[in-house]
Amino acid sequence: MDTRQFYVNPIGVVHAGGESCSIEIIEQYRPALTGLDGFSHILVLWWGDRVDTDEHRSETVCRKPYTKGPETIGIFATRSPVRPNPIALSTVPVLGIDTAAGIITVPFIDADDRTPVLDIKPYIPATERVRDVGVPAWSAHWPQWYEDNWGFDWAAEFTFED
């Protein structure tokens, strides 16, 4: 078993709240935005810093996170940032990019305000989109396309604990 340790540097931060969301890129990484304009969507890898605890990192199974899901489910079968490495992935539409200021404006992102951003990649249909996808029966009624999420009641799908 390989037990090497890895070091990750944030490349930016999420600004979420109010009526706008954006990703602010640290100045030294702003040149990396060159050529990103023209892509309608990006993949944002972010660090779940608010759940980065030894307890959460050791969680491998959780109790019924999905309303119609099984009573217990392995953490790798969820999109939760609570996992051995709290890395999360979001696909978001790009509304605009200000390369000089290092700001990518997005309509929303499922990360909290001030969440560290680890990396950004362009969404490329040839590598991200899959034609024949299989999902468990308990999630088969979820939208099949990103754009169909807008009218879907996602809050009814989760068993969030307060």
TrEMBL record:
Sorted UniProt keywords:
Methyltransferase, S-adenosyl-L-methionine, Transferase
PANTHER family on file = TRNA (ADENINE(37)-N6)-METHYLTRANSFERASE (PTHR12818)
Q: Which superkingdom? A: Archaea
The identity of this protein, by name, is: SAM-dependent methyltransferase
Q: Which residues form the TsaA-like domain?
A: 8-132
Which SUPFAM superfamilies is this protein grouped with?
YaeB-like (SSF118196)
Return the similarity comment. Belongs to the tRNA methyltransferase O family.
Q: Which InterPro entries match?
A: TrmO-like_N, YaeB-like, YaeB-like_sf, YaeB_N_sf
- Record has Transferase as a keyword: yes
Annotated GO biological process: methylation
Spell out the Pfam families in the cross-references: TrmO_N
The reply on keyword Amino-acid biosynthesis is no
Name the PROSITE patterns for this protein: TSAA_2 (PS51668)
A GO molecular function assigned to this protein is: methyltransferase activity
